């Protein structure tokens, strides 16, 4: 059974810092990996999707990497802003493409 | 707005009542998924449809839960005889069959069972 773990569970940083969120998964037979953002009481917003054959994806200040063989992904946020405060969720898609398995999330607070 | 929509956004009910939620996916998406999220946790998969066919159900989906997608467009999730443990956010997502299976989520329905 696939298990996804995110570390740290919570993170508080001053504005302007670069930061790294970590995600690990137990079964490397994945089709791809998605990073999401979730604001309190809201749905999920897709940030980045990395295909299993890719090693990284970039969107603006966000960069996500994937090391499938070691079961790890990182989300790098450059020059953090208070508006980045949210919960960040990592999820892997199985090879059948029929379900996402999520980690527990990292709750990020960026202080002005 | 061409994103995934869900209705209602909030539902408060008494234990033992039946509730039904609706999800409208992105129009050209043929896959539709339901997830449940409790406070402080990541979402957990419940079930998914490809067009009108329900192809997989999690063991989290007890016999009090039923989902339909009658014409391969919108979907409904019904919970019968609700229990306090059913209180959660119910999230719907949709994707194309191809294109990396990227899933797009709706705003969710927050269920509170008193």
General description of the model:
The complex is a heterodimer of chains A (112) and B (114). Chain A is mostly beta strands. Chain A has strands at 4-7, 10-14, 19-25, 30-38, 44-51, 56-59, 62-67, 72-77, 86-94, 100-102, 106-111. In chain A, strands 2, 4, 5, 9, 10 and 11 form a six-stranded mixed sheet that branches. A five-stranded antiparallel sheet of chain A has the order 1-3-8-7-6, with no helix packed on it. In chain A, a hairpin with a 5-residue loop joins strand 4 and strand 5. The radius of gyration of chain A is 13 Å and the shape is globular. Chain B has 114 residues and is an all-beta fold. The N and C termini of chain B lie far apart (33 Å). In chain B, strands 2, 4, 5, 6, 9, 10 and 11 form a seven-stranded mixed sheet that branches. A four-stranded antiparallel sheet of chain B has the order 1-3-8-7, with no helix packed on it. In chain B, 0% of the residues lie in helices and 49% in strands. The model of chain B has no long low-confidence stretch (mean pLDDT 93). The A-B interface holds A 4, 31-32, 34, 36, 41-46, 49, 51, 89, 91, 93, 97-105 and B 4, 6, 31, 33, 35, 40-45, 48, 55-56, 58, 91, 93, 95, 97, 100-108, 110.
Q: Could you give a quick summary of the protein structure above?
A:
The complex is a heterodimer of chains A (112) and B (114). Chain A is 0% helix and 60% strand.
